[in-house]
């Protein structure tokens, strides 16, 4: 019965990790699953708790720094950006007027919702803009005063 409780705790912690971006809770889920393993072998509760604490602590101390080092954005590591990171800094063409509340641009043949970086600015159809950052599925843009770089 104790093994089932540890498994339920491990699954609950793994699900909780899915709603965070910390890469911390998942290590406690691993500790709970390790405790479930020793509980299934018939270990007393004290040994289960010690196993939970040791596996959680060691994995947080040893694995989390490695994962966080590899989770840095490409701009910090010098690698080639991909995904949303690759879109930031690219040029777009305004298709529908872009302001603080609405707008549409074309980026590399794809249509994107866009908002003005400065809520006071408006960009008219035909103007070129540069993507400053991406929030969800919306490109935050600014007037493209720079040459094609």
UniProtKB/TrEMBL annotation:
Ranges of residues in domain NfeD-like C-terminal: 85-143
Entry keyword Acyltransferase: no
Parts of the chain that traverse the membrane: 44-63
Entry-linked InterPro entries: Membrane_assoc_protease, NA-bd_OB-fold, NfeD-like_C
Subcellular locations according to the entry: Membrane
A single GO molecular function term of this UniProt record: peptidase activity
Single biological process term from Gene Ontology: proteolysis
Lineage: superkingdom: Bacteria
CC per GO annotation: plasma membrane
Membrane topology label: Multi-pass membrane protein
Chief localisation class: membrane
Record keywords, A-Z: Hydrolase, Membrane, Protease, Transmembrane, Transmembrane helix
Protein name listed in UniProt: Membrane protein implicated in regulation of membrane protease activity
């Amino acid at each position: 019965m104790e093994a089932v409780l540890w498994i339920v705790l491990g699954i609950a912690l793994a699900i909780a990790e899915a709603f965070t971006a910390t890469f911390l809770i998942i290590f406690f889920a691993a500790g709970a699953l390790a405790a479930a393993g020793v509980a299934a072998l018939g270990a007393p509760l004290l040994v289960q708790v010690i196993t939970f604490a040791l596996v959680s602590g060691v994995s947080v101390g040893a694995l989390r720094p490695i994962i966080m080092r590899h989770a840095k954005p490409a701009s910090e590591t010098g690698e080639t950006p991909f995904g949303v990171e690759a879109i930031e800094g690219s040029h777009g063409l305004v298709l529908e007027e872009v302001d603080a509340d609405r707008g549409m641009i074309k980026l590399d043949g794809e249509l994107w919702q866009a908002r003005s970086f400065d809520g006071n600015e408006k960009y008219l159809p035909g103007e070129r803009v540069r993507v400053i950052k991406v929030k969800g599925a919306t490109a935050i843009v600014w007037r493209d005063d720079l040459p094609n770089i």
